[in-house]
Design goal:
Helix content: 40-55%
Order of helices and strands: HHHHHEEEEE
Structural class: alpha+beta
Strand order of the largest sheet: 1-2-3-5-4
Distance between the termini: 70 Å
Number of strands: 5
Strand content: 15-25%
Length: about 160
């Protein structure tokens, strides 16, 4: 532990940079978006110490905390402006709704297979099992996603 204290006393830049890199690595592993802004704040404190602004450990921790809070609050506003409808771009199922899908296995008894968003899915026709469903190669539109089963309707 004395090695870290000695390194901090001589070059606090490296300690703050290590904290920022560590937080960024954990953020990259888990993709929570909560550790991105503390990592940025640690990087800014590292730059601050590199240019010669030395506030001591308590002062630097305070600057780190304030920068983290400010960056997190500003990021929430930015995200709300970028995604005003609140759609989660990582929710694949909700992105499938109203997408066109191509029939890859004919519908028999109202069940078949479709290709959409780079994958094949089991599908059922909306409203039950008509005698004739869409043929292979025709387009359908996704109405609902239930697990790995899509409910589709013929495209018009």
């Amino acid at each position: 532990m004395t090695v870290v204290a000695d390194l901090y006393a001589a070059q606090p830049f490296w300690i703050w940079l290590a904290v920022g890199v560590f937080l960024l690595a954990v953020e990259s592993m888990f993709s929570t978006e909560w550790l991105l802004w503390p990592a940025v704040a640690a990087g800014l404190v590292a730059v601050m110490t590199a240019v010669g602004v030395r506030l001591g450990l308590p002062g630097e921790v305070a600057v780190f905390a304030v920068l983290t809070v400010i960056a997190t609050l500003l990021s929430r506003r930015l995200i709300q402006k970028a995604n005003p409808d609140g759609v989660d771009i990582n929710d694949r199922d909700s992105r499938l709704i109203d997408q066109r899908a191509r029939v890859v296995e004919a519908f028999v008894g109202g069940r078949g297979r479709v290709f959409v968003s780079g994958a094949e899915w089991s599908a059922v026709l909306e409203g039950g099992a008509p005698e004739t469903g869409p043929d292979v190669g025709q387009d359908v539109v996704v109405n609902r996603v239930s697990g790995s089963l899509l409910t589709v309707r013929p495209a018009t």
